[in-house]
């Protein structure tokens, strides 16, 4: 599966409280995270998902995750500046590397005189579900042997409010994206949810002809009064009888756009999406009930 990962490292100034990790090993009993300081110390570490702090490593596929390391000390200063480096590795349960981000700080050779110093790493969770994964963040001092390592165990979970049933077809990930909020939908209560996208990643099991397949996807959304809000017998109808490469489905992402017109919404609404192999009876269905608010 091809993955697109996003990581930004930033340096900001922030006043914080004290929690020293210098020259020590500390384990968080809630998350299982292990912090190891060797010459460098961190006053406080925060992990947040979609701008909300979390204390347990369970993320939904596609969520935006942020690691914040606040008030880092112990750097050997040159002309009043610190010269930090940061790398992040995502490891699978066999400790093989899924992703690696090196030399990520914009400060580079110029260094930074910001104090107190905070380093933040942001990335989208686009890794295998239901596996024991680990994010390993390493901060180094370019001017000394000082290091700080943070190992954070986590799992990628499926959205519980999506009811998914399969009959012959399979998938890697299915998740609902809120275009208005620019984030993964994590519950059946949606604010600013008139523009949604249901994303299918890694669809497999279609009957192939010389490596080509012909899928169909139907969509229906009704409100609490039974009125039809969205109805499309095949969102892929523009393809006609044109087959697509099997790899486009197995290695790519198929988006299904759900645009709700203006006006009052009679909640809750029911959504049903059906993926079908037109050359067999194989299907995959997604059903859910949502409350959508402006």
Brief overview:
The protein is mainly beta and 294 residues long.
List the helices and strands and how they pair.
Elements: E1 8-13, E2 24-27, E3 34-38, E4 41-49, E5 52-53, E6 58-60, E7 64-73, E8 84-91, E9 97-101, E10 117-124, E11 133-141, E12 147-157, E13 163-167, E14 173-178, E15 183-184, E16 189-191, E17 195-201, E18 212-213, E19 215-222, E20 228-232, E21 244-245, H1 246-250, E22 253-259, E23 269-277, E24 283-293
Parallel strand pairs: 6-12, 16-24
Antiparallel strand pairs: 1-10, 2-3, 3-12, 4-5, 4-7, 7-10, 8-9, 8-11, 11-12, 13-24, 14-15, 14-17, 17-22, 18-21, 19-20, 19-23, 23-24
Number of domains: 2
Q: Distance between the terminal alpha carbons, to the nearest Å?
A: 35 Å
Oligomer: single chain
**Structural shape:** elongated
User: Regions with pLDDT < 50 over 5+ consecutive residues?
Assistant: 1-21
Residues in β-strands, percent: over 45%
* Overall CATH class of the largest domain: Mainly Beta
CATH architecture of the largest domain: Distorted Sandwich
Query: What structural category do the secondary elements indicate?
Result: mainly beta
Averaging pLDDT over every residue, what do you get?
Answer: 88
Largest sheet: 7 strands, mixed
Radius of gyration: 23 Å
CATH topology of the largest domain: Coagulation Factor XIII, Chain A, domain 1
Helix percentage range: under 10%
Order of helices and strands: EEEEEEEEEEEEEEEEEEEEEHEEE
Number of strands: 24
Number of helices: 1
CATH superfamily label of the largest domain: abc- transporter (atp binding component) like domain
Protein name: Lipoprotein
Organism: Nonlabens ponticola
